[in-house]
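Appendix C reproduces, verbatim, an entry submitted by the partner laboratory led by Prof. M.T., so that reviewers can inspect both the input and the predicted structure.
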Amino acid sequence: MIRLDSEEKEILEAFESGNLKRAKSAVDEKKTHQAIADATFRKDARISIRLSSKDLRALQARALQEGIPCQTLVSSVLHKFVDGRLVDKSAKK
């Protein structure tokens, strides 16, 4: 007879009693993560804002440096701000 350690015994007991649950397949897990990502990045609202010409030009220049559209940059900055992930690098520590 094979000797089982306590963890193996626990697993065997759970299996024999029918208390084990099937693990999600990689495909199911990928679908779940994809649905979460889709919901996170869904753009379903529109806003209009007024900016100074200077700020708009600065935003457009920064977007060009980053290689992304200006609206994508603004959306990303706002998203990071509301998530609390926008870091002010110029602030003294």
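The two ends are 65 Å apart (CA to CA). Additional entries are available on request from the coordinating office.
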